[in-house]
Amino acid sequence: MPAAIQDRPTAQAGKTPLVVRLLVLATFVVILNETLMINAIPRLMESLHVTEQAAQWVSTAFMLTMAAVIPVTGWFLQRVTTRQGYAIAMGVFLAGTALSAAAPTFTILLLGRIVQAAGTAVMMPLLMTTLMTVVPEQDRGRVMGNVTLAISVAPALGPAISGLILQLGSWRLLFVAVLPIAGAVTYFGLRHLDNIGEPQVSTLDWASAAMATLGFGGLVYGLSLFGEGKSNLGPSIGIVIAGAALIAFFVLRQLKLQRTGAPLMDLRTLTHRTFALSLALMCIAFLAMMGSMILLPLYLQNLRGLTPLQTGLLLMPGGLAMGILGPKVGRIYDRLGSRPLVIPGSIGIVLSLAGFTQISMTMPYWQVLALHALLMVSLAATFTPIFTLGMGALPPNMYPHGSSILGTLQQVAAALGTALVVTVMSARATSLVAEGAAAGAAQLSGMKVAFVIATVLAAATIVVAFLLPSRTTTSGDIVAH
């Protein structure tokens, strides 16, 4: 599909091509499932008789599979047509959803989630590559605003939607509800989707694929273990180091293959300064978003006594605001460029996280809602411009590799954000309990420290935002070697 990018179809100015609309809809449906199970952990523990640590794997395994599969998507998308890539991705996702809905045991449910994630991993690179191919440069901000809804708002809405569905019954309803929607999206997409370009025969370097799968997968797995207590600290560190070492070998092999053949993941994308800066900003912002998404439900349910439904309703306005603003932010980007959006957006992220460092047992709920809405709106103002700016800085033949790198590091950032806040919170809470503090007060103090660290990390986005250009072209945007 991306092979024939040189023959770029022209889209009518001011209109989003049908192929992109269909892919945005499908991507929203599949990515929503990444965080859909967060509120279902207690139900799973009761229904399938598993521990909290085991139940958390329904979310961890999804991220782990995404991180392992996405590096191979650049190669995969070059070998298939748009329709073939779409059919395979949605077919695999549907199979995983059906398997999860009918799972008689926790092991089968976990397998279903892994299959789901494998289909999801293909959709985002397919969407990004197609968008960059068919949408004229002057319209990309507006169209990328719709993409923001799929790749950023869907995970933000996952816990809220699952809270509503869980009020109706079993955790299985989360999959039963998704199945007909995903089926309809697949059918409609295959009826109306056109192929963009022609597939290209290319070879897969199996050593690179193995290193990427084990390296990125191992890194996400190791990070996810940090939140499971001191007993896992040694293995966690070992797995993270092993994953990082494999990624280092993977990078060296890609640099060698760039000289002699076709790399699995073309790292020359990182020599484009704007793409590299956009990638850094996206990772830090996504880390902050996922960290807050883990902490807030814990705070609202464990410490303030809200139900999953009440938690979902309280956090839903922020997610909806992010979705509504996505296209508007894109239009502003097309007119004014990135800086009027990214700089205020990065400042808003820091201010909202700084506000959360003041959480208490008596903080008014409207204040929690306002801070969460500020975070989501600030992320909306940031994500759309940096995705558009970063991908637009690449030459067309690097779109598949750029979207593959972006998707992989997004999953690593999500795992790092989750592991970081849970580890910091647990360590602080455990220390205070050992000193005689009450469990609730200790956990609250741990959450405050976690938000302080997230705030400090997010401050780096302001620095990166000032380094980014307002607009970019694919020529002359190369980092000096």
From TrEMBL:
| Major facilitator superfamily (MFS) profile domain span | 19-473
Subcellular location(s) of the protein: Cell membrane
**What would be an example GO MF term here?**
transmembrane transporter activity
* Keyword Transmembrane helix recorded: yes
The record ties this protein, via NCBIfam families, to: efflux_EmrB
Give the family, as the similarity comment puts it: Belongs to the major facilitator superfamily. EmrB family.
Protein name as catalogued: MFS transporter, DHA2 family, lincomycin resistance protein
Organism of derivation: Lentzea flaviverrucosa
